[in-house]
Design brief:
By secondary structure, this protein is mainly α. The chain has two domains: 36 residues; 31 residues. It is built from three helices and no strands. Helix 1 crosses helix 2. The longest helix is centred in the C-terminal third of the chain and has 24 residues. The mean pLDDT is 87.
């Protein structure tokens, strides 16, 4: 998260925004007495990847290209 914010806002603002986010998470954990649910972050990351993929497919289509997934085998 911090890397994307840093690219958009610059380092000082990204650090402040990340600290603010962490403070809100900790405050909520303390006040509700519930552990942090990391599944939320995984869902957000998956949603971001899907949006990026859709945007790339749309841009490629506008330029007359077609994207084909690569089957990566290590």
């Amino acid at each position: 998260m911090n890397r994307r914010m840093k690219a958009r806002m610059g380092t000082p603002k990204a650090m402040t925004a990340t600290a603010h986010t962490l403070a809100r998470i900790i405050y909520r954990m303390v006040t509700t007495q519930q552990p942090c649910d990391t599944a939320i972050f995984q869902k957000q990351e998956e949603r971001r990847r899907n949006q990026k993929s859709a945007r790339l497919h749309a841009q490629a289509g506008e330029l007359g290209f077609q994207l084909v997934p690569i089957n990566f085998v290590p």
